[in-house]
Amino acid sequence: MNNYQEYLNSEGWKAKRNMILNMWGNRCALCNEGGLLQVHHRTYERKGNENPFDLIPLCEKHHEMLNPKQEPELELSYEQSVRAAVAKMTLCLEIELDTPENLNHRENIKKNIEGIKLRYEATTGERFIS
Ligand SMILES: [Zn+2]
């Protein structure tokens, strides 16, 4: 969908957004904080036609963690970028439901985390300590 920004301004999205916020009692799905919340897409598979499980409310801090803004002036070291990737995927594991449908997805995330750690260790010759 090219007019995604338009979609985010539409009544349809506003209604969906409010439904999600109500479902979660107007609290961040991760830390349970109230206040200013953003509705996060767990997947863009059904962008524009999301089902309630595709969306969760997040506080600003947690939304930023899951959707880091691109900051080109911020040069991450290799170790920092590995740590950021591992932290992000670990967070995904924490919020992905531990249901049979999610089993493969969770296994893939775990494999990715292990793969990143192994690559780090092979590249640097140092142990990766989380
Ligand atoms: Zn939060």
Give the arrangement of secondary structure elements:
Blueprint (H helix, E strand, L loop, with lengths): L3 H5 L2 H13 L13 E5 L13 E5 H7 L11 H18 L7 H22 L6
Antiparallel strand pairs: 1-2
The structure holds zinc ion.
What does this molecule look like?
This protein is mainly α and about 130 residues long. The chain is about 50% helix and about 10% strand. It folds into two domains: about 1-60, no CATH class; about 70-130. Strands 1-2 form a two-stranded antiparallel ribbon. Helix 4 runs antiparallel to helix 5 (about 105-125). It is elongated. The mean pLDDT is about 85. It binds zinc ion. Zinc ion binds near residues 28, 31, 33, 58 and 59. Zinc ion (ZN) binds near residues 28, 58 and 61.
Structure, briefly:
The protein is mostly helical and 130 residues long. It is 50% helix and 8% strand. A two-stranded antiparallel sheet has the order 1-2.
Q: Report how far the terminal alpha carbons are from each other.
A: 39 Å
The parts where pLDDT drops under 50 for at least 5 residues are none
Helix content: 40-55%
Major pleated sheet:
2 strands, antiparallel
As an assembly, this protein is single chain
**Strand segment count:** 2
The SSE string, one letter per element, is HHEEHHH
Write down the overall mean pLDDT: 86
Number of helices: 5
Determine the structural class based on helices, strands and strand pairing.
mainly alpha
Shape: elongated
- Supply the number of structural domains: 2
Rg estimate, integer Å: 17 Å
Q: What bound compounds does this protein have?
A: zinc ion
